[in-house]
## 1
Amino acid sequence: MTSSHRDLSDPSTDPFDVAADAAAVIAERTGVDHHDVALVLGSGWGQTADLIGETLATVDNADVPGFHKAAVAGHSGSMRSVAIGDTGRRALVFGTRTHFYEGRGVRAVVHGVRTAKAAGCSTIVLTNGCGGLNPDWAPGTPVLIRDHINLTAHSPIEGANFVDLTDLYTPRLRDLAREVDPDLEEGVYVQFRGPHYETPAEVQMAKVIGGDLVGMSTSLEAIAARQAGLDVLGISLVTNLAAGISDQPLSHAEVLEAGEAAAERCGRLLAAVVGRL
Ligand code: 8IG
C-alpha cells in the first residue's frame, strides 16, 4: 500500500502523515510548494474566494489523500489556490469541510487544518453559516468569533497533550477584522453535533452558558489549528435566527438565500482582511 492510501480512520495511521501526503499532492497540482493562508468556506461563504484574487489552480478533493466529496448542498468539492491580490502570496481555499455529523471521525473533520499547516500556511480563516441568538442580528449579519464552546464532547487532540486554548481566536486578527469593518459584531460560537438543528430549549441553554451563535462546525477545527500552531480567524454568517428566537421554522433554503444576499459584504470583508494579513 502506498503512503497516499493510508486511511485516516485506521488508528495505526498518523493523521499528520496523511496531511503531509495531502500537502505534497496540493504542491504538485498547484505548482507551488508553499501556501500562506488557508480559508475554509462554510455555508454562505462560497463566492468569497473570487474577491480575494485570481484562482490559479483548482484541485478536486477526491484526488487529495484524506479528503472527500462535499456532503452539503451548495458546497464545492474542490480546493483552490488563489493569488492574494498582487501581494505574491497564495491562499489555499477549501470549498467545503467535513462535518462531525458525517460520522467519519474527528480526524477527517480537522484534516483540512492539518493539511493547511503541512502546506506552509501560518494562518487559517474558518468561516461558517450559523444560527444567531441575538434577535438584532438579522440573517446576513457577519459575526467575528471571539471564543467558542465545544458541545461535541470530542477533541481532535489525541493522547495526553494538554493544549492551551486561551486566545484561541487570535486577538491581533480580530483587531484587524474590526479595522476593516468597524461595525463588525463579535460573539461566542457554540458547536453542537447536528445534523438536526437545536430545539428551542437547547438554544436557551446555549444562551445561558454564554453563547451568541449556534452551529455544527469550526470549534474542533480551531482546536486542531491551535495544536498545529496556526493563527485562527473565525467569522460566522448568521443565516437564520436560532430555533425559538423567531417564530419562523428553519430551512436550509433560507441558509443559502441569506448567504447569497450577504455574499458581497462577506466577500469584501474577507478579501480585505486576507490582503492585510
Ligand atoms: I446555517 O441554527 C446553520 N447552521 N446548530 N443551528 C446549528 N447549525 C446551524 C444553524 C442553526 N444554522
## 2
Amino acid sequence: MDAISQLESYREEIENISMETSEELEKFRIKFLGSKNQLKPLFSEIKNIPPNSRKEFGQQINAVKKLAEEKYQSLKLSLESSEQIKEIKNLDLTKPGPTINLGSRHPVSLVMNRIIDIFSRIGFSIAENREIEDEWHNFTALNTPENHPARDMTDTYYIKNDWTHMLRSQTSTVQVHVMESQQPPIRIISPGRVYRNETVSARSHCQFHQVEGLYIDKDVSFVDLKNTLLYFAREMYGPEAKIRLRPSYFPFTEPSAEVDVYWGLETEADHRITKGTGWLEIMGCGMVDPNVLENCGIDPDEYSGFAFGMGIERQAMRMYGITDIRMFFENDMRFLNQFRSVSI
Ligand code: DAH
C-alpha cells in the first residue's frame, strides 16, 4: 500500500473506532500517539511523493495526528463516564453505611455544662469574654492596684515586651466587663479558661478552667450568697450535701470566704482527697467590694452583690477519679474515649 492510501486507511480507522475498555484505549494511544506511533514512518515517505503534493501530504499526516488526539480525549471521557455508571449500577443500596465515629464531650466540658445548667435554673445567664486581658480588667478594677501584694497571689503570664496585657489569670475579669456594660440586676456565670505561670505537675497546670458567678441587685446579702451556694452544692453533690464557709481574703470581695463541701471520710481515698478533714475546698466567694462596684460604674450605696469563683479541673478529677491534671490537656484518645457514655 502506498503512503497516501495508508494514511487514508488510518484516518478511516480513527474515525470509526469504538471501544469498551481502557486496555483498548491504551492500545489506540500507543498506536497513534505513542513515541513509536504508526504515523511517524509516513513522514519519511514524504520524499517519495511527487514534489507538488508533498506539502499537502505533510499537512494531511498532521491532520490525522490531530484527529487521533481528539478521538483519544473523547473516547477517554466517555469510557470514564460509562465506568462511573457501571459503578453506580453495581452499588448495593441495602449495604450498611460506613460507621460514623461519634466524638464525646471532654470531661471539663461535662462538668462545666453541669455547673452552667445548675445556675441557669435559678436565673443566671452565661457571659464570656476575652482571654488576653489588660491590667484594668484582670487586676485594677478588681480592687488590686499596682504594687498591691495580691497581684502576687497568682503568677501571671504577661505579653512579652508589653507588661500591660496578659493572659487572664482568673475569670473574675468577666465581672468587670459585664458591670461596665450593664446596670443591675445582674446575674451571670462566666465559664472560661485561665492561665497561670505554674510548674506543670500531676496536681497543677499552667492552664485550667473556672466558672465565675456574679449577682448584683438591691439588698443582696450574705444570706443570699450562702443559700445560693447550698443550692449549688446539693444539685452538684447530692441532696444531702453540706457546705461550710471559712473566712478568707480576696481583693475584690469583703467579706470573703472559702467554701468547702463535705466529702466524707470513709475510704482511704476520702482521707487523701480531703487531707484527712472530710471537707473539700471547692471555691472562693464573698460580697463584692464596694470599690469594685464603683470602679465599674455601679453605685455601691444603691446596690450590693456577691461573687464566687471555682476551678473546674479539680472538681472533674474528684468526680471521675482522675489523678493527673495533665490528662485534660493531652488529648489522648484512650483517656477521652472513657467519657463516651457520660452525657450531661
Ligand atoms: N478569682 C479567684 C481565683 O481565681 C476566685 C474567686 C474568689 C472568684 C472569690 C470570686 C470570688 O468571684 O468572690 O482564685
